[in-house]
Amino acid sequence: MKNYHLAVFPADGIGPEVIAASRQVLRKLEQLHGGVRFETREYGWGSDHYERTGAMMPADGLRQLEKGGFEAILMGPVGSRTIPDHVTLWGLLLPIRQGFDQYVNLRPMRQLDGVASPLRNPAGHPIDMVCIRENSEGEYAGVGGRVHRQRPQEVALQSIVFTRTGTERVMRFAFDYARQHGRRLVTNVTKSNSMQHNMVFWDDIFQEVATGYPAQASDQQLVDSMTARMVSQPETVDVFVASNLFGDILTDLGAALTGSMGLAPSANLNPERRYPSLFQAIHGSAFDLVGRNVANPIASIWSVQLLLEFLGETELAARLMHAIETVLREQRVRTRDLGGTSSTTDMTEAVCRALETEPVFAKGR
Ligand code: IPM
Ligand code: MN
């Protein structure tokens, strides 16, 4: 029996609903496989915790998590109607990304059969892109300040921090990922035409790292024209590496292009496994949907799939991906974001049923 230890944060908004769905899928996998167990420990940190205590998590939260010996963290969205976003995010998610050195944010964007893209001719432009987003520094370094409030001389500074170590490692990860996954092209997303210091540096490092991967093709695209390329010629985009902010923006575009924010997963990785990695849907807390059992749980369930892959449970990961694909392709169960009326529970049960019919599991039963 293989035991994995997961920290689970339902967090805010529709989080408890999509996380319950994800846990149901994990339980189904345990039951079908028989040889793995996911020991979960749930944490109530988030905006409710803030309302009660004035902090999103305890002061020693990261240490508690580290001591817990978790291989991974499964997390719902963070964000509240009543607390400013920068307070909630800098109180929980961003300190975890930085503190646990989760310097890669891996975000697949693939258009699945049965899901409509807003693009006019999606068949001619299949979408299968992977963003490798720098996740520990750059525009999100958190360095800056604001002085002389409410006076004409008021100044706000938010400094962008690019280090050689931080830049090199994320680019290496992008090329390694491309190589390991049989992907041909790595695109460098940049803005070195206007940002002559940090982005020219970013390009230099990209060039240096690319030299070490002669089998991998590479190209370069300014972030503004990257948005146009993703819309007009998404079939030319394969793996791309982007700074923290650029990756953030481009992956919402990618999610919309592939059909719904309700489908898009993400993995915040510490590739060295010194700290636990964090898996989370890229959508927000969706206040308008809370408590109504209508949110699409697939983004969170697909994030579980990325978690399984990261744990090295490739067979389980492949089965789960296949089950997700089956449910979407058949279109019998569709949540509102996909034009249907099915509930979160319906969708989750459909994935569990699809898992049951996976040949490998069916055989073992
Ligand atoms: C994301 C989110 C976060 C980010 C926010 C909530 C801080 O938009 O994971 O894409 O910008 O990274
Ligand atoms: Mn985002």
UniProtKB/TrEMBL annotation:
Q: What cofactor does this chain's UniProt record say it requires? A: Mg(2+); Mn(2+)
Q: Which organism is it from?
A: Hymenobacter sedentarius
The molecular function terms of the Gene Ontology recorded here are:
D-malate dehydrogenase (decarboxylating) (NAD+) activity; magnesium ion binding; NAD binding
The family classification in the record reads:
Belongs to the isocitrate and isopropylmalate dehydrogenases family.
Taxon lineage: Bacteria, Pseudomonadati, Bacteroidota, Cytophagia, Cytophagales
**The organism's place on the tree of life at top rank:** Bacteria
According to the entry, every stretch annotated as the Isopropylmalate dehydrogenase-like domain falls at 5-351
Q: Quote the Pfam families the UniProt record gives.
A: Iso_dh (PF00180)
UniProt entry keywords in alphabetical sequence: Manganese, Metal-binding, NAD, Oxidoreductase
Q: What is its EC number?
A: 1.1.1.83
**Kind of enzyme, top EC level?**
oxidoreductase
Which InterPro entries does this chain map to? ICDH/IPMDH, IsoCit/isopropylmalate_DH_CS, IsoPropMal-DH-like_dom, TTC_DH
Q: Give the signal peptide as a residue range, or say none if absent.
A: none
> What reaction(s) does this enzyme catalyze?
(R)-malate + NAD(+) = pyruvate + CO2 + NADH
Q: Specify the protein name.
A: D-malate dehydrogenase (decarboxylating)
